[in-house]
Amino acid sequence: MPDRDASPILSIRDLNVRFGRDAVAAVTDVSFDIGRERVGIVGESGSGKSTTGRAIMRLLPAKAGVTAKTMVFCGEELLGKSERQMDRLRGQEMALIMQDPRYSLNPVLSIGKQIAESARLHLGLKGKQALSAARDMLIRVRISDPDRVMGQYPHQISGGMGQRVMIAMMLIARPKLVIADEPTSALDVSVRKDVLNLLDELVRENNSGLILISHDIRMVASFCDRIIVMYRGRIAEELTSLDKAQHSYTRALIAAMPDARHPVRRLAVMDRQALENIGGRVG
Amino acid sequence: MIRVENLDVAFGHGQSRHHVVRDVSFAVEWGETLGIVGESGCGKSTLLRSLAGLEGGWTGRIWFDGREVGRLRGREELKLAQMVFQDPYGSLHPRHRIGTALAEPLKAMGHRDDRERVLRALRQVGLPADFANRFPHELSGGQRQRVAIARALILSPPILLLDEPTSALDVSIQAEVLNLLADQRDERSLTFVLVSHDLAVVAHMCDRVLVMKDGTFVDELTKNDLQRGVAHDAYARELFDASFMQQLQGS
């Protein structure tokens, strides 16, 4: 179906999220399309990047006011969906991978059971079949002795292995869209690359879209086809590479990062006042 | 300024004995900034805590400024080195005002409760004096780390031990805190030992970097090595590549 392949998986227009009745807007007029590609959303704490991810999954608390002109996922409008319809989509069609596997895995269920549960729910497999699907998936995420890991509990495995298990669980249903929210921030540097490469490989294989949410603009730049930079709830700009950065916030963000190969005596510091003044004109 | 010989730290006994730091020796010159990088569990924080006197179970010898210091530190020895931790929220008492938190080291060292000195310490780290009346939760993460730095510096120690001082902060705030540390170092000619997993931060701050793995140093890099991306040891090179994502393909 070449036609369907070219159309975006997710298309958002004017997404707004606010918490409380007249509190500050967390996300303002955010619009973007995601195709079968890897798109990064970067920004600092409070920029609205994670809130955007959760708004797509409809995982925000009830008190959050989420409005948008359209939010189309694979040809279906998400905004009018009931909680039950969303339940069917979540996990099956769209998956969320969070920062720390220690908090997103169930501590009292063995790894094998947790992945098998995913196979049961989303693939309709039963008993032995589900367990063997789980085992296959563990091999896919390059866990060398799957039988031992199947019987282990989350506290017995390392962070990097935990994140592999999360990826196995989330991708077993071959979702069309994967949202990874800081998937490597809790991991050691040497493990990060493996986890990202693995995620990339599986997402490509499934021909899905990937949204990588992170504070690390360099990591995102080396990994993603496109970068969406968020600042104070708005999209500051969209980039394909860091050297094309136009917006003063993006430039300040890049300049603030220490770089071993280009040493400076003092790091550039953001002029927040100046950014505030142009804040109203971004997007 | 700092000399360490045959420092060894192990936790537990018998079967569960865990050898964390294995017989390391190194020295740091006056005014030098030494970086120690490594991944979780390599022993870098334990090494720093031993230097700070927070870890009791070490063997070996440590000298600060030509004086040998022991496992239990007296007032004069504590005044030689102070520590800044990763999470400023965790290291400030939630129900003490900032002014009280800053006065604590002065009281512990037998000084009078000197308000003027507290306010001066706040100003030195770029915070307004009225912050002394605030509680930690009324400050942002970057401001809290400034308070932690002010508290470490209030006794004017010649040595500052920094354990991941900016890992919990946003990049733009990290830049401000690193600049503050560099300024204080130049102004007071301080000696730093900076422990971090972030090679970019370490390369920016340090004159010399030791790469730690499984309790020992596997490589030593000069500023020049870091700039050119040269590492002598295979593990150090791996760490290098991983942190700069050189091998990751965009598409």
TrEMBL record, chain A:
Cellular component, GO, one term: plasma membrane
Topology versus the membrane: Peripheral membrane protein
SUPFAM superfamilies on file: P-loop containing nucleoside triphosphate hydrolases
UniProt keyword Protease present: no
Keyword flag Chaperone: no
Subcellular location, principal: membrane
Subcellular localization(s) per the UniProt record: Cell inner membrane
Gene Ontology terms, MF aspect: ATP binding; ATP hydrolysis activity
Family recorded in the similarity comment: Belongs to the ABC transporter superfamily.
Protein name: Glutathione import ATP-binding protein GsiA
UniProt source species: Sinorhizobium americanum
UniProtKB/TrEMBL annotation, chain B:
Domain of life, per lineage: Bacteria
Any one GO biological process: transmembrane transport
Entry's Gene Ontology molecular function annotations: ATP binding; ATP hydrolysis activity
Reactions catalysed according to its record: glutathione(out) + ATP + H2O = glutathione(in) + ADP + phosphate + H(+)
Coiled coil: none
Enzyme Commission number(s) of this protein: 7.4.2.10
InterPro entries associated with the record: AAA+_ATPase (IPR003593), ABC_transp_ATP-bind (IPR050319), ABC_transporter-like_ATP-bd (IPR003439), ABC_transporter-like_CS (IPR017871), P-loop_NTPase (IPR027417)
Principal location: membrane
Membrane topology field: Peripheral membrane protein
GO cellular component terms, semicolon-separated: plasma membrane
SUPFAM superfamilies found in the cross-reference section: P-loop containing nucleoside triphosphate hydrolases
Cellular localisation: Cell inner membrane; Membrane
Entry keywords, A to Z: ATP-binding, Cell inner membrane, Cell membrane, Membrane, Nucleotide-binding, Plasmid, Translocase, Transport
Broad EC category: translocase
Segment forming the signal sequence: none
Job description of the protein: Part of the ABC transporter complex GsiABCD involved in glutathione import. Responsible for energy coupling to the transport system.
Similarity section: Belongs to the ABC transporter superfamily. Glutathione importer (TC 3.A.1.5.11) family.
Quaternary state and interactors: The complex is composed of two ATP-binding proteins (GsiA), two transmembrane proteins (GsiC and GsiD) and a solute-binding protein (GsiB).
Name of protein: Glutathione import ATP-binding protein GsiA
Source organism of the structure: Sinorhizobium americanum
UniProt lineage: Bacteria, Pseudomonadati, Pseudomonadota, Alphaproteobacteria, Hyphomicrobiales
